[in-house]
Amino acid sequence: MSEFQAYLQLGFNHITDSNGYDHILFIMAICSVYTLVDWRKVIVLVTAFTAGHSVTLALATLGYVNVNPDWIELMIPFTILLTAFINFFHRIPKNSYAPKEKAPAFRYPLALGFGLIHGLGFSNYLRALLGKEADIFNPLLGFNVGLELGQLIIVFIILAIAFAMIELLRVQKLSWIQILSGIIFGMALSLILNNDLFRTLTGMPVNS
Fold it and tell me: Which of 7, 77, 84, 164 could potentially form a cystine with 191 if both were Cys, beta carbons 3.0 to 4.6 Å apart?
């Protein structure tokens, strides 16, 4: 297996790892208001997220950006929490198949901006893998491609489930959005409340 393939697999495993589900939760949050019929809008949103995390993943891995990992681990669940919260205000058009329907414009810069934060989280893991390795171009490229492949699979699964629930089982779309966003909001809130930095800043006892 080549170095590129090895890091591609590591990137894929990292974003699909259920033990590090914070990135999965964010992808779920930005996809919660869509189903398979909205795939074009989702591609644009995911591309914005990809652009954001690709920039900071590269800059941080190359050593141009250095942010305390503790702050990154706290900011990531806040991006999930805010995205899930915004979903509660999503409006369902009268005709969900209308070709002129567009996602609210603010979702794109939001995905881009939050992608910058998640990229810093990815870089912490990648830098730990790289150690003192001098040539990082192939590892960086392979890891990023692996992230994207895993991300696309997660997106497809989420949209397929939403399509099945709404179009086949006839669950009201607004109910589906609110239930899924509520679950994501609760999980993100739990991550924040159990974060050691947050507990220190708020005077709560730190987890032992």
Answer: 77
121 Cβ partners below 8 Å, 6+ apart? 22, 23, 72, 73, 76
> Is 19 within a domain?
yes
Q: Are 81 and 185 in contact (CB under 8 A)?
A: yes
∠ Cα 18 51 136 (to 5°): 75
> Tokens representing 89?
């205000």
Residue 33: which domain range?
A: 3-90+102-199
Residues 51, 175 contacting (CB under 8 angstroms)? no
Is 207 a member of any domain?
Answer: no
Residue 11 and residue 17: Cα distance in Å, rounded? 10
Q: CA–CA separation, 106 vs 109, rounded Å?
A: 6
Amino acid at 6: A
Residue 96 lies in a domain: no
Q: Are 124 and 56 in contact (CB under 8 A)?
A: no
Asked if residue 173 is part of any domain, the answer here is yes
For residue 19, how many other CB atoms are within 10 A of its CB?
4
Q: How many domains does the chain have?
A: 1
Six token digits for residue 6: 């090895």
110: which residues sit within 8 A by CB, 6+ positions away? 83, 86
**pLDDT per residue over 79-109, tens digit each?**
999 999 999 998 876 654 444 445 567 888 9
Give this prediction's pTM: 0.90
The pLDDT tens digits for 34-59 are 988 888 889 889 889 999 999 999 99
